[in-house]
Design goal:
Blueprint lengths: L7 H13 L7 H20 L5 H33 L2
Keywords: Membrane, Transmembrane, Transmembrane helix
Protein name: DUF3040 family protein
Length: 87
């Protein structure tokens, strides 16, 4: 982790303080830290900071769904061509 990177716990605390209004968001430096905290939280949510079976299962279903969509798309291209050529 880079030196200036926030941990998830720090980012959560900063985001909660920003939501409650206890941080002066008019200050550009404070706003920068709050934005960094939000990015850290989004990154942790996307890439799974805490690895749970539920998250792993959801990602697996997403990958299977994407594969099915690609296969349907390829079949949609090849089946009419095969029918037209009489294969």
């Amino acid at each position: 982790m880079p030196k200036d990177e926030l941990t998830v716990e720090e980012a959560t605390a900063i985001a909660e303080h920003a939501r409650s209004g206890s941080l002066p968001l008019e200050d550009p430096e404070v706003r920068r830290v709050v934005e960094q905290a939000n990015r850290t939280l989004v990154r942790a949510q996307m890439w799974g900071e805490d690895r749970s079976p539920k998250l792993r299962r959801r990602r697996r279903w997403l990958a299977v769904g994407a594969l099915v969509m690609v296969l349907v798309w390829v079949a949609g291209l090849l089946v009419p061509l095969a029918l037209r050529l009489g294969l």
